[in-house]
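FAQ: What does a ligand-bound record look like?

Like this one, built around fe (iii) ion:
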Amino acid sequence: MKLKKFGNKWVVRIDKGEEIVETLKQLCGKNKIKLGSVSGVGGTGRVTVGSYKAKTKEFYPQELIGDYEITNLIGNISTMNGEIYLHLHITISDLNNNTFGGHLTSAIISTTGEFIIEEIEGKIEREFNEEVRLNLLFK
Ligand code: FE
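The answer part, i.e. the structure of the complex:
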């Protein structure tokens, strides 16, 4: 992983074999980035994505293994109980240009990953909401 800061923005390269979510989380923790947005592109070979079923309040993750382009990764950085909390969604495309996507749990870089973090000076804590059974922005 490599990173460089320009003003309130960070340019990040995540390398082959590194897992995106954990790498971004550690980077935010180390550099005290508590609030902001993330976007990225790259290549991945192993992704766990899912969707949340509102009615049953259950998350349905699926692991995809293959050659995928990360056509879009987008999300936000906040905190929950003082810990860095990432909410990331991803869209990937296969060799036939079909796309898949969802809420991102993990993705391992197969080629390279290029990300931009835009840091917001501030802090917003998440709180668990019983009605939707999700960790919502703002306390
Ligand atoms: Fe989500």
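Follow-up question: can I read anything off the structure? Yes, for example: The chain has one domain: 2-120.
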